[in-house]
User: Fold Glycine cleavage system H protein from Orchesella cincta.
Amino acid sequence: MGWMSRALITLAKSHQAKYNVVSGISQCGRFSFSTTSFNAARLFTDKHEWVDVNGKTGTVGISHYAQDSLGDIVYAQLPDVGSEFNLHDECGALESVKAASELYCPVSGKVVEKNPAVEETPGLINQSCYEKGWLFKIDLSKPEELDTLMDEAAYEKFLKSQSDDG
Assistant:
């Protein structure tokens, strides 16, 4: 591990997880800097869920693109604590004024926490999908599945390819 990776890990562990950066996105392994935030491990699925891994636990939510596409979210059905899921299993649902959408588990594991604030106020997903609007936490049973997910740069490229196809 290089000095920069060690420095970034130390920085992330110091709870200073947000920095403004003047220029776009640059990548260093799974660490990314963007104009809005610094995140050490956020990975995305092609169904627009994300997982942010800390140790063996992943925090799961939906992407900005997904919440924007859904519109104002009015109901969140989150998985129960103790539930176990495999990669891509349906694990919940979101309803908005425009549509309903299933949630798919981005990794295999056991749900260890769900976000009661989102159940109480689903609009938090629209307001802060990466911070206050997270959905649930899961203990990963197959961490190697993370290798199948996209980092932020790959996800942005995926979104662009989807809009080019439409």
Observations:
- The chain is about 25% helix and 30% strand.
- The two ends are 41 Å apart (CA to CA).
- The longest strand covers residues 90-96.
